[in-house]
Amino acid sequence: MAVVVLDFGSQYTRLIARRFRELRAYSVILPGTAPWRVIEREEPEAIVLSGGPSSVFAEGAPRPAPEVLEGRVPVLGICYGMQYLAHAFGGRVERRGRAEYGRAVLTHFEGPLFQGLTGEVQVWMSHADAVTRLPDGWRVVASTEENPVAAIQDREGRFFGVQFHPEVSHTPKGLSILENFLEHAGVRRNWTPGRVLEAMIADVRERVADSRVLLAVSGGVDSSTLALLLARAGVDHLAVFVDHGLLRLGEREEVERSLRPLGVNLRVVDASGRFLQALAGVADPEEKRRIIGHTFIEVFRVVAEEAGPFRFLAQGTLYPDVIESAGGFGAAKIKSHHNVGGLPEELGFELLEPFRHLFKDEVRELALLLGLPDPIRLRHPFPGPGLAIRVLGPVDEQKLGILRRADDLFVSLLKEHGLYQEVWQALSVLLPVRSVGVTGDERRYGYTLVLRAVTSVDGMTADWARLPHDFLDEVARVIPRRVPEIGRVVYDLTSKPPGTIEWE
Ligand code: XMP
Is 146 considered catalytic here? Predict the structure, then answer.
């Protein structure tokens, strides 16, 4: 029993399924053109037609199976989906003079989709075509100033269409609209994180069967949760944690402490000497990344060969990591960008990516169920190249040590003051710039440490965090006292864009 989301190539399709999960309804995504027998297998309780880049009147425009139009279960069309319904039932869709993009406010709304909504209803528009004539018996159930046909429905209340995107956060009451659709369709809402986990475990067991799985653990929440999932599923796995010498203070011990007691078959490989040697004297950020990626693959290859053979490589890839070409689900060539990107092609693994449809907060929910300790579960993102891209210029043991101690003080103080969870990511950067200072009667010539803390939703854009001045003052006093190699502490006020979160 599921809400079947038929994907016509919108960048928001996964978000639609995610919203239904939030509403505790089980939801699956199928290619927009999936035949009815495939849809039927999911026992659909409701069907959603996603948005997409095509024009319904263009030749070869993707269309759903004809049975979808028989109204066996309620159907909601979003954007392209709505235009398709209007077109298929005999209405007219035309290209607008110019695309409508951005926020709009509903000037009128009525009917089951908008039940219980009061006050201003803001919606997010993103379309070039518009419905200009309704099919017989259909009516408009919402309008905006610019767009008289913002939502439609048929006479029997089996088919609905919205021109805007209820699934995005820019439609603040969108979740209520989707919930109204579920209620109207009588969809059962019993899909909890516990059930998601059970289903995922069953899937992994079935796919892996008696084969062996190799996994690279980075110490972040995604790969750690994945390791726990494999352990819980009881599949034959080896989790490899490569200590590249570019980790934060105590990170390796934390990973060991967190995963081993929960049944993860963990192997820690200390390759720090090899990484530091390869990085010696290298200042260019892209070159550092390349060397680290390359060395990682080499180290991993040795482990895979020694401990192998493995059929699968498991990766904690999340939906936002998945970059899809415009072809949409099914046809899309999906490319993973990840710390261990390149491994499957090099080593001939099959990929196992159980989280590829999930968002980070959903993985954190699973992590909680699997018992991942909070220090890892709630940890800020940390880049694969680690501290190497936070020591600007050439990396060496001494500078890494300085940064490690200073960063640990910054992060510990954030936690102590209850600010750690208030920011999306906090980090320190060691500049190769020294400045003159004085302590007592002594002249100092210390390094500069940059503190960076940002707020963000997904790391794509970010703003610098307005940390309290008193807190920054405390950090700026404590660090040079405890890490005497640092003479000056500065706070980074750059947002993204124009800056990136990391400095390299
Ligand atoms: P930027 O610096 O591009 O970073 O604004 C956005 C987010 O991605 C993280 N980041 C990386 N993560 N490998 C990773 O796994 C990398 O090479 C890498 N570079 C940046 C960064 O920490 C931030 O969370």
Answer: no
